[in-house]
Design a protein that fits this description.
12% strand, Rossmann fold, alpha/beta, two-stranded antiparallel ribbon, Tyrosyl-Transfer RNA Synthetase, 14 helices
């Protein structure tokens, strides 16, 4: 594996690597490096989850061992249901993600793990050790970033980020992947896992996707998602209703989807009402000049998301 080829491929998406120097060292020195991203199996995955998974998908293509953690105990700690219900959702999410992975050329190259497969007695002994070296406020602030809230919570909300950090160490992860909301947890892991004898990971972060309403980030909680299990009919119906003001950039969900998901996974030019576009800057400029109509943009989004999902 060659970091000089892998890093530019990753940077087709707008990402942060903590740090590129350590990433290059891992690629050069470790025969089979491991990467992962984790999701709570509390509902069907959406394209925001897929977007944040792009580095894991690309690293799988480059020969990394790639893991999707379907974090059932995390979901339990975060009050997302009882364990059997959570595991049922996890199985469905695994099947949905693998179907999309096959379309991206990494079918069979992704490992899917439940937290309960390795979060055993020895794990929780290590969790207590980690809790003794991490400042309470640091853990609390990490969860604030994930949940986007500062209200008081149950004690589990402080345990949660420690579990995320420890997962990285226990699974032997070299490159931890997530959205920018995971940044504080990953920094916590970078600074503290070595105190327990684990290797220091690299972290890769990507931006969030705007929801269909054009007002909030895509989230199951806001009901503004494009899910990974959409049918052609449901995808078309959702995009038809998606906010798409002519020439508007900052609040345009479809523009956000092309920037963070579609273009980073697309080779070659895309057509928008007869206009050929090969990169995001061209697309943003054409949209700002209103060279692409909302109707043309939505039609293209149905086509291009359909290529990824259906």
């Amino acid at each position: 594996m060659d970091p000089d080829k892998i890093i530019p491929d990753l940077k087709r998406q707008e990402i942060e690597i903590l740090t590129e120097e350590r990433f290059s060292k891992i690629v050069r020195e470790i025969k089979l490096p491991t990467t992962y991203i984790g999701f709570e199996p509390s509902n069907v995955l959406h394209i925001g989850n897929l977007s944040s998974s792009i580095p894991v998908i690309k690293l799988a293509r480059h020969g990394f061992r790639s893991i999707i953690l379907l974090a059932d105990l995390h979901a339990l700690a975060n009050d997302k249901g009882e364990i059997e219900e959570i595991r049922s959702v996890a199985k469905y999410d695994r099947d949905v993600f693998e179907r999309v992975a096959k379309k991206m050329g990494v079918g069979g190259k992704i490992e899917y793990k439940l937290g309960t497969e390795f979060e055993d007695q020895s794990y929780f002994i290590q969790l207590l050790r980690l809790a003794k070296v991490v400042n309470f406020t640091e853990a609390e602030k990490s969860m604030d970033e994930i949940s986007k809230a500062t209200m008081s919570r149950m004690t589990a909300s402080v345990i949660y980020p420690l579990m995320q950090a420890l997962d990285i160490g226990v699974m032997g992860v070299n490159v931890a992947v997530g959205g920018f909301a995971q940044r504080k947890v990953h920094v916590l892991a970078i600074e503290n896992l070595k105190k327990l004898g684990y290797q220091t990971p690299v972290a890769v972060h990507s931006g969030a996707i705007i929801g269909t309403d054009g007002k909030k980030l895509m989230s199951k909680s806001f009901g503004n998602t494009i899910n990974m299990d959409e049918t052609h009919e449901s995808l078309e119906a959702k995009i038809r209703k998606t906010f798409c003001s002519p020439g508007e950039i900052e609040t345009n969900p479809i523009l956000s989807w092309y920037k963070t998901l579609i273009l980073p996974l697309t080779d070659g030019n895309l057509e928008f009402g007869g206009l050929s576009i090969s990169n995001y800057k061209q697309l943003e400029t054409a949209w700002a000049k209103q060279e692409i109509s909302p109707q043309e943009f939505k039609k293209a989004a149905v086509r291009d998301l359909g290529m990824l999902l259906l």
